[in-house]
Amino acid sequence: MRLLLFGGTGSMGIPLAREYLWVYSSSTLVLYVRNRSKVPQDLAEHRNVIIIEGELDDMDMLSKAMEGVDAVIAALGPTGRKGPFYPRDTPIAAAYIRIMVTMKGHGVRRLIALTTPSVRDPEDQFSLSLIFLRKMFATLCPNAVKDIVAVGRVIRTQREELDWTLMRLALHSSDTDPENCEVVAGYMGDGKINAVSSRIGAAQFIIQELDRREWIWKSPILSKPS
């Protein structure tokens, strides 16, 4: 397998990259990054890692990165541009549109996109803790939440052409106990999930989904067991 990972220098991208290389030890990982110097040394020096520097609006570099790819994982988010200073023009959603156009141009169907419970799903039910988080983030970071919601909307329009999964991640724990990183997949208010997730556990679940393909055209929330 040849995986293209966006956001590979972020808080979720790094554990995803490491988990992929652990599980698929003989496969290739392509990291599409803005700045090569931010790639951790263990990944930058790994024999199966290819690093491509480029912006998310550079269609030529996106096309180069997509060559020979079997699946795409995108861990893109509004980190670093917070509160009232976040742009209003939904830049992450726009980036996903360009990524999906490039995927279709290269015949790549599988997309796993990381987002948050701010993206709603018809399977969701009432959950006080998660509704509180939704309202809090919508109040503190309205433009960022607008962008996150737009990501869910643009990806869901591609059901005929892409095998997508929207992985909605709850708040991350510190992962101080590697033996306590289990996560489950479910929907708001189903009694299985809560408001806290594990980066390590989420990375393991997402990489397993590459082969399992249990959540195509679905939007599960990943969290620690309730």
Describe the structure.
With 226 residues, the protein is an alpha/beta fold. The chain has a single domain (2-223), classed as 3-Layer(aba) Sandwich (Rossmann fold). The protein contains seven helices and ten strands. The protein has an eight-stranded mixed β-sheet, sandwiched between helices. A two-stranded parallel ribbon has the order 7-9. Helix 2 links the parallel strand 2 (28-33) and strand 3. Helix 1 packs across helix 7 (199-212) and helix 4 packs parallel to helix 6 (142-156). The longest helix is centred in the middle third of the chain and has 15 residues, at 91-105. It is globular and about 45 Å long. The N and C termini lie far apart (34 Å).
Furnish the topology, listing elements before pairings.
Layout: E1 2-6, H1 13-23, E2 28-33, H2 41-44, E3 49-53, H3 59-66, E4 71-74, H4 91-105, E5 110-115, H5 128-140, H6 142-156, E6 163-169, E7 171-172, E8 184-186, E9 196-197, H7 199-212, E10 221-223
Parallel strand pairs: 1-2, 1-4, 2-3, 4-5, 5-6, 6-10, 7-9
Antiparallel strand pairs: 8-10
Helix pairs in contact: 1-7, 3-4, 4-6, 5-6
Name the descriptors:
NAD(P)-binding domain-containing protein; NAD(P)-bd_dom_sf; single chain; 10 strands; oxidoreductase activity, acting on the CH-NH group of donors, NAD or NADP as acceptor; 226 residues; Rossmann fold; two-stranded parallel ribbon; 35% helix; alpha/beta; eight-stranded mixed sheet
Order of helices and strands: EHEHEHEHEHHEEEEHE
| Total domain count | 1
Tell me the name of the CATH class.
Alpha Beta
Task: Give average pLDDT, whole number.
Answer: 91
Protein name: NAD(P)-binding domain-containing protein
InterPro entries: NAD(P)-bd_dom, NAD(P)-bd_dom_sf, Polyketide_Oxido-like
Family: Belongs to the avfA family.
GO molecular function: oxidoreductase activity, acting on the CH-NH group of donors, NAD or NADP as acceptor
